[in-house]
Amino acid sequence: MKITIGGKSIGHETVTYRELGFGQNMSDTTIPYQLRLSCAEFQCVIRNLFNEFVVENQQDDNETDESEAIPELVQNGYPTFDALLSSSRRDLCNVIKDYLFFELLHGLLGSSNTTECKFAINSLESLTCSDDGFVITGKAYSIN
Known about the structure:
The protein is α+β, with helices and mostly antiparallel strands. The protein has helices at residues 39-63, 71-75, 81-87, 89-99, 101-109, and strands at 2-5, 8-10, 15-17, 31-37, 119-121, 126-130, 133-142. It has one domain. The two termini are 24 Å apart. The mean pLDDT is 87.
């Protein structure tokens, strides 16, 4: 995983994410960040969580009103991670970005020692996938 904050490469041990109030402005000074992961790195972190999430959603949708269902899952037949990666990367990224962002960030940064951290991720604005891997972008802020 490669992390850049404000255009500068930094080590993952200096980055955490904001659990409470994620996405809310905490500071006037935000810094753009980018996380680049290979497909293997990304899959290692999120594949099982995604598959469990899909199974739980399908069970819930079968037991309740499907008006609350996640369209990307319903339209693709409640796919596995691998199936959606092959058929619709955009839908895969949308589901993870909208519903599994904390799990993703925790899987990537959860072991960060907060006393060593210099930056906190405060938003996940985009998640894209290409043959080269996955790219996550958003805003972070400096921890004083």
